[in-house]
Every structure is written in C-alpha cells, then in structure tokens.
Specification:
The structure is a homodimer. Helix content of chain A is about 75%, strand content about 0%. With about 200 residues, the first copy, chain A, is an all-alpha fold. Chain A folds into two domains: about 5-75, Tetracycline Repressor, domain 2; about 75-195, Tetracycline Repressor, domain 2, CATH 1.10.357.10. In chain A, helix 1 runs antiparallel to helix 8 (about 120-145), helix 5 (about 65-75) runs parallel beside helix 8 (about 120-145) and helix 6 (about 85-105) runs parallel beside helix 9 (about 155-175). The longest helix of chain A has 27 residues, at about 120-145. The first copy, chain A, is elongated and about 65 Å long. Chain A starts with a helix and ends in a 6-residue tail after the last helix. The interface between A and B is large, with 47 and 47 residues. Chains A, B: This is TetR family transcriptional regulator. Chains A, B: Keywords: DNA-binding, Transcription, Transcription regulation. Chains A, B: It comes from Devosia nitrariae.
Chain lengths: ~200, ~200
C-alpha cells in the first residue's frame, strides 16, 4: 500500500464511520499529545477532550497505539522525499530530513507507536502496513535512479529503502537523532556506491 | 565498549554486588521468561522465584528493562559473527544467523527491551551501551575486509555495522524475521558492492 493508498483507506473507512466525528477525535488527540506528550496519552483523555464516548473511539481505533499512528501519519509532511536528479543527494536529504523531523514531537509519537506495536497486535499490524507503504514511497527514489541509468537495474529498491528506514528507526529508538551533513553523505555514499574497492 | 568489556563491567559490578545472589536472580528471571514470556515478566515475580527482596533486585537492576537486557545478553551466543574470508559471505551469515536466533524466545525478549527503552531512561542508556558494543563487534567484520584489501580503507565500518543491525532490528520490530538465503545474499551484495552501475 502506498502512502496515498493508506490515506485513501483511512478516509474511506472514515467516511463510512462519520468523518467529522473522526476528525474531531483526531484533533482532540493531537492537542493532548502536544500538551502532555505521547507517554501520558490515553483513550480516556481523548474521549474527555473530544466529548466522545470511549466505545466510539475504541470502535474506530482498537488501541491507543493505532490512534497514535493515525495522528502521526496525519501530521507527517510530504517533503521528506527529494528528487534532485542524484540518488546520493536524494538519500542524503532523506536521512537528514527524516531525523530532523523526528527531533520535534513527531519522533516521540513514533517511538511510542513502535513500542506499543511490541505488545499490541492491532498496532503491530497497522504499523507493518504503514511501514510497507512508506517503503514503497522511498523505493521510488531508487526506481528513478534505475530509470536514469544511475544504479543497476537489478537493484532491490524495496530492500534499499528498508535499509535506509531501518537506520532512521535505529537512530530514533536509541535516541541518536543528531546527524551532520558529512555523516548523512557517508550513509548515501555507502548505500549507493557500496564498500568495494573499484577494480 | 566491546561485548567483552560489557561482560567485564557486568561481572565487576556483580562481584562488588555479590555474584552468587546476582546469578541466582538472573537464573530465576530466565526461568520466568521461559515459562511466562517477556510480556508478563515482572520484578515482583523474579523476587518471589529467587527468594530475594525486591529492594535487592532494584538496587542492582533499576527497572525490568535493564534486567531483561542482562538476561538477553547472558544468553546470546557468540556464533553470530563469521569469519569466512569473504565479506559478502560474512554479512550473509550475520543477517541469517541473527534473525534465526531471534525467532526463538530471544527475539521476544529483545523486542520488549527495545519497547521498554522508549519509556525507561535506565533501560535506554543500557541498551545504547549494549548496542554500541555490538556495533563495534560487527564492525570488526568490515575491518578485516579492509585489512584484506577487499573493501575501501575509507569505509565507515561502524556505520556499515549499524546499517546491518538496524535492518535486523527493523525486521524484529515489524515481526518479519523470515529471511531466505537469496534475500540475505541480496542484503550482503547491496551493502558490499553498492547499487551503482560499474563504469
């Protein structure tokens, strides 16, 4: 599922559900997140703030993890993926922008989503679907480079995309989001050119 | 800190602490993990089983996450890192063996450690130290390849090691541990040879 397919599915379920009530709940949930942070976030607090019944929220989002993921997804900007005509530059910008974006509150929210997914099956499934969509989006960066003849046509673009996303997750989950341009460039160089001595 | 330095530190703190009592607690904790799983694991249950006071355990391990990490570390075999003389083969074996190892109970334990680290500062710090040690160990695989002239001497070995570990974490945290030899080989090929068309 691509990112826009994920959106589409979310909207279409939302439409069946009652889009205004759903957006009101997401707004309330977002406000609570900003005020109290992801750790303190609970369905109870969201219900109070949105003046909605807890059963209503649970019907739409079975767990706090799934609700947090939808808020995270709704906030996420589309500017992470660049298209500069150079894969190394695109990869450098991708890793810089994603880690920079996570330094704000969004990183805190996403960390909690990943943590919840380790004990909440519904959240795990939603996260897996979401991550697969993001992977396809990031893989497009590599597909464009194949089309330009910049990288080998037998590149596994999804795997390359996953390795980049995985590095970003690893930095987030070990609280090491600071990255300078040189390090981001080294990431890109090692991913694109590899490690092998040219022969 | 290397893996053996981490061991050393654990042992030396243990010696100051009372090594027998410490090992008895780790044994009890391990038994509970095997019987009930990581999700149900609590300091209370460990104290009961080890016939130790909760304050004793808390003095040595401030949180359940830090205790889980020590059990995980104590169990982990040294066979993950191969030295075949070919970096691509070493990387293939590393990713295969680590994911295979995690398919047993160890993966469940490590997932919970990573989840706990997102809300428990002591666990986060212990995990960061542990991961840095493992990274240095994995980087040795790349250092050997540099010494053999197989890869470029300006390779950032720690970064290459981190990208591998990050991929493994990502698979674990999204519950996608199954990997076949072809995919493991593709990982190794893309890491070592890169994506660029040779020119």
């Amino acid at each position: 599922m691509t990112d826009s397919e994920y959106d589409e599915r979310r909207r279409s379920i939302g439409a069946r559900r009652n889009p205004e009530a759903q957006e009101a709940i997401l707004d309330a949930a977002e406000a609570i997140l900003i005020e109290d942070g992801a750790a303190a976030f609970s369905i109870e607090a969201v219900a109070r703030r949105a003046r909605a019944g807890k059963p209503t929220i649970y019907r739409w989002w079975p767990t706090r993890g799934t609700l947090l993921l939808d808020i995270y997804h709704r906030q996420k900007p589309a500017v992470i993926h660049a298209d500069t005509g150079s894969l190394e530059e695109d990869v450098t910008l991708f890793i810089e922008r994603l880690l920079e974006y996570w330094k704000g509150g969004a990183g805190q929210v996403f960390r909690v989503v990943v943590a919840e997914a380790q004990r909440d099956v519904a959240c795990a499934e939603a996260l897996r679907t979401y991550a697969a969509g993001r992977r396809r989006q990031t893989a497009a960066m590599f597909e464009r480079a194949i089309a330009r003849g910049e990288i080998s046509p037998d590149t596994d673009s999804l795997l390359a995309a996953e390795m980049l996303a995985a590095l970003a997750w690893h930095r987030l989950l070990t609280d090491r989001l600071a990255i300078d341009r040189n390090e981001a460039k080294t990431v890109a160089r090692q991913v694109v050119r590899g490690l092998k001595v040219s022969d």
